[in-house]
Amino acid sequence: xxxxxxxxxxxxxxxxxxxxxxxQITRSVILHTALRIIDRDGVNALSMRRLSDAVERDTTVLxxxxxxxxxxxxxxxxxxxxxxxxxxxxxxxxxxxxxVAHRFRALALEHPNVVPLLVTRPLATPLxxxxxxxxxxxxxxxxxxxxxxxxxxxxLHIYRxxxxxxxxxxxxxxxxxIERPEETDHVLQLGLHRLSITDFPRLRALAPALASYDGxxxxxxxxxxxxxxxxxxxxxxxxxxxxP
Length: 244
Fold this sequence. Notes:
Keywords: DNA-binding, Transcription, Transcription regulation. With 244 residues, the chain is mainly α. It is 64% helix and 0% strand. The protein folds into two domains: 9-66, Arc Repressor Mutant, subunit A; 86-181 and 214-233, Tetracycline Repressor, domain 2, CATH 1.10.357.10. The protein has helices at 13-18, 27-41, 48-55, 59-62, 69-81, 93-110, 115-124, 132-147, 152-178, 185-193, 201-205, 207-211, 215-233. It is flat.
C-alpha cells in the first residue's frame, strides 16, 4: 500500500463533484470522500485529519456524523457492498449466486484498495453493529435461497461458504495488482523457472498456467465445484437431492 501523503487540493475535488446539501456536510459526503481517498491512495492514507481537510471542515464537524475512523471504514465498506445487487425472485438460485459472485468481483476490481475492508471489517464489527448496507447482501441471499426451498440454516451455510470463497479469490487475484504490480507474466515465469526442478517440479511445469491467470475463468471454475458440491450435499426438506 502507498504511504500516507500530505493532503493536496485534489482531495477536495471529489467533494465538489459529489456536491453538498445546501453547503452542509453530511455522512454521505464524508464517506464518499473517504472512499475516493482510499481508492486513490489506499486505506493507510486515510486519516481523520486528511478527511477533514478534504471536506474543508474542522475535524470536530466530522465527529457529528461519524463516531470515529472505524465508523468511517465501516461506512466505506457499506457504500461498496450496497452496490452488490441480488435478484431475490430469480428461480435459478445457482445462476443468481454465480451472477452475484461476478458482481462482487467487478466491485473488487473497481475498488481494489477497499477489498481488505470488505474482508476485515466484519471481523472488527459485531453483526448487530454493522451498517445496514453491509447486511443487505446477506439478507437478500438468504431470501433467494429460502424462497428456493432451502432451510434457513442451509441458506446461511451457503452464504458463508460462498463469501469465504469470494474473499479468498479476490484477495488472490488482486494481490499482484496492489502489492507487486511490477511482476509481469514474463517475470513470473522467469522466477518460477529459476526454482530447483528437484524441489519444485510441479510449480515449474505449471509456470505457463500460473502466468496466464484469468480471474473470471478461475472464478467460474471454483463456482462450478462449489455450487455442484452444495447441490449434492444439501437436500430438500423431503429428502430429495437438489440440482444447481
